[in-house]
Structure formats: C-alpha cells, structure tokens
Design goal:
By secondary structure, the protein is an alpha/beta fold. It has one domain: Rossmann fold (3-Layer(aba) Sandwich), CATH 3.40.50. It has nine helices and five strands; from the N terminus they run βαβαααβαβααβαα. It has a five-stranded parallel beta sheet with strand order 2-3-1-4-5, with helices on both faces.
Length: 178
C-alpha cells in the first residue's frame, strides 16, 4: 500500500488535507516539518534563525530518507520548499504517490494574512514574495507530482474526494474508505 505525499506552497492546505485524508482512510499522518521540530526540539523558525535555510533543507532530506525505512500506507505532508531539491523529488517519488495541491497567490495571502511564523514571508511586500516564490516553485511542484489538484475555493472534502477519485487511487481497493 503506497504512501500519499502532499506537496505544495505554504498555505495550500497540505496539513489540513493530510488530516482529513488520514481520518478518511484511517492512515497515519506524518508532517515532515513537525517531525523535524520534534527531532531537533525547536520550531522551524528557530531552526532557520539558528542554522539557516540550507541546514534546514538538509534536515528535510534526512527526514525523507528515514521515511523510506518506515512502513508504507502513510499520508505524508511536506514543507513547501522540500521538493525544490532534485534529491528530495527523487525520494518523494520513491516514497509513494505525490499529490500537488496547487494554490493561487491571492489565496495564500488571504490564508496567511495573520501568520507571522513563516520565515520566508518575513518583512515587507508579502504578496510580491508569494507571487515570486510561486512562479519559481510551481513548475517544480508540477514536475514532481503524479496528481495535481487545484484547491482554491474548494472545501477540504471536495479536495479529498478529488484526490481519492483520481484513477490512481480509485482502482486500488486499499484506498477505499471504510
């Protein structure tokens, strides 16, 4: 039974969709950011501040390598920047079926308007930063994914239904909700 891996930009709903999928399928949810925070006993913001982005990206790669050793059948939600490394994209494809939750910049800005915990969105011109990062990351996300789901203006249940209704999952009995 394959893992389902959720990728996408910050604010695309990876964690929320992951929770809903894990309940629907009765599967374990693993959030790579949370796993890293537990391992290093610090928040992602603190890791960025103390060690820098490059060290954090190394931690993400190590986390994926450890996930390859764990039992399959998980729902895995990854940080927005994790797929940017080619090594990580290779690992994601080995881990399972990659689902890209595609989101528009205006939706991200609305969802994250009050969020001050995102290291890459600190400072002025958040909307410009979001648009710039999305333009850079979207083609990479698309190349890494087997399934692409547009999430703007959809409920969590609509997104989950679209994922599970995809031919990749709809033919596999192991993904039918119980």
């Amino acid at each position: 039974m394959k893992n389902i891996i959720l990728i996408g930009f910050m604010g695309s709903g990876k964690t929320s969709v992951g929770i809903r999928l894990s309940y629907r399928l009765r599967r374990v949810l693993t959030d790579t950011d949370k796993k890293i925070e537990r391992l290093y006993k610090m928040t992602i913001s603190d890791i960025f501040e103390r060690f820098g982005e490059e060290k954090f990206r190394d931690m993400e790669t190590q986390c994926l390598e450890k996930l390859l050793e764990e039992p399959e059948g998980q729902i895995i939600s990854v940080g927005g920047g994790l797929p940017m490394r080619s090594r990580n994209r290779e690992l994601l494809k080995r881990l399972g079926t990659v689902v890209y939750l595609r989101v528009k910049a205006r939706t991200v800005c609305t969802r994250l308007a009050a969020d001050t915990s995102r290291p890459l969105l600190q400072g002025e011109d958040r909307e410009e930063k979001v648009q710039s990062l999305l333009e850079k990351r979207s083609p990479v996300y698309e190349s890494a994914a087997e399934i692409i789901v547009d999430v703007d203006e959809k409920t969590l249940d609509e997104i989950v239904d679209e994922i599970l209704g995809n031919r990749i999952f709809s033919q596999g009995k192991e993904w039918v909700s119980r």
